[in-house]
Amino acid sequence: MGDFNLTVILDAIRRSTGGLSRVELAQIVGLSPQTISNISRRLLDQNLIVEAGKEGSGPGKPRTILRLNPGGVFALGVHLDPAVTTFVVLDLVGAVVRHSRIKTPGGNDPSAVITTIADEIAQLVADSGVDRERIAGLGLAAPGPIDLDNGTVVDPPLLPGWDRVELRSALSEATGYSVLVDKDVTSAAVAETWAGGPSGSGSFIFMYMGTGIGCGIVLNDEVIRGTSGNAGEIGHIVVDPDGPQCDCGLRGCVKVTCIPQVLVAEAEAAGILDGSRSGNSGAEIQQSFSRLCDLADEGNEQALAIIDKSAVRVARAAAVVTNTLDVERVVFGGPFWSRLAERYLEKVPALLEAHSDTRLIHPIEVVGTGVGDDVGAIGAASLVLEHTLAPRAQRLLLES
């Protein structure tokens, strides 16, 4: 209970914009002034918070303001995407201290990729100047589905040869850090709650626009992972009943109508993209998709029609999830999001409202991520901070 109360107080300070006094903390979290004082002293001794001046203009003694100490602890984050792998060093307030990005190595040899990741992490930490002893761990965001218990990826799309690769243990052995592995969509949702500002509060879904499309789920400020850690797999929601056949047996699923690989194929079939690609690697899809978006930005009507049709389909999928969960916000982000943002933010809000069962009760806000393009890697690092410092009901469970 003591550890849980500590995380509750730390989380309250983290969520405040200008810091909180001990009196304000007692009012917010409902703990006694003595408990607040004792826990504050522990957090100060651990360098997780600092006393940041005094405030007060009325009668009585000015109150000492407590804020997070950005340098109190750090976390490493890696986002493994079939096209590009992103790395960050994150401080306690969710600010990026150091960042790098490399093209994801090709081929079907995961061990070579893991070695490359480990080398890049070592260089990143050295360049950041952060004391290794202050690094709480390493988070890895990977395409789903995943086996959360064993830290493995399970047949991820566009990563042939990666089925049942034990990423957690392999990366821990290669780097020497404690490693957490989670789905990229869940990691993105965690990033939004930790570093997204207003868009990361309350109840929302994070629509992850990457090589694949999925959603992270946050209800009442808590990230929902599901029984096996694979909540948010929306690839088989039907968004076009007359669409192409999916490998699940249905027609018009998200997986076969909305993802970048499908949009590129539509553009090639329409003749607006050269169809002479040598393969379907993540990097090749990303390059062709970027060209499609360039054409749309230049006003090419066929390219615009493909992007706009995808917005309609994605909005239908998002509506299924928002109606099921009754959330207040849809946050879009991910490595492919920035190229879609302008058209999607123009089209999706009205489409989502039209499909909303609660539109007469409350609106559904539609926004882009408050974290930025590196939301996957920042989310991976945030996994470490969340695991270490965020209040979770599981902390109240006694060990058997």
UniProtKB/TrEMBL annotation:
A molecular function (GO) term: kinase activity
InterPro entries in UniProt: ATPase_NBD (IPR043129), ROK (IPR000600), ROK_cs (IPR049874), WH-like_DNA-bd_sf (IPR036388), WH_DNA-bd_sf (IPR036390)
Superkingdom in the source lineage: Bacteria
Coiled-coil regions listed: none
Keywords, sorted A to Z: Kinase, Transferase
UniProt xrefs under PROSITE patterns: ROK (PS01125)
PANTHER family the record matches: BIFUNCTIONAL UDP-N-ACETYLGLUCOSAMINE 2-EPIMERASE_N-ACETYLMANNOSAMINE KINASE, ROK (REPRESSOR, ORF, KINASE) FAMILY
Family: Belongs to the ROK (NagC/XylR) family.
Protein's name according to its UniProt entry: Transcriptional regulator/sugar kinase
Organism: Pseudarthrobacter phenanthrenivorans (strain DSM 18606 / JCM 16027 / LMG 23796 / Sphe3)
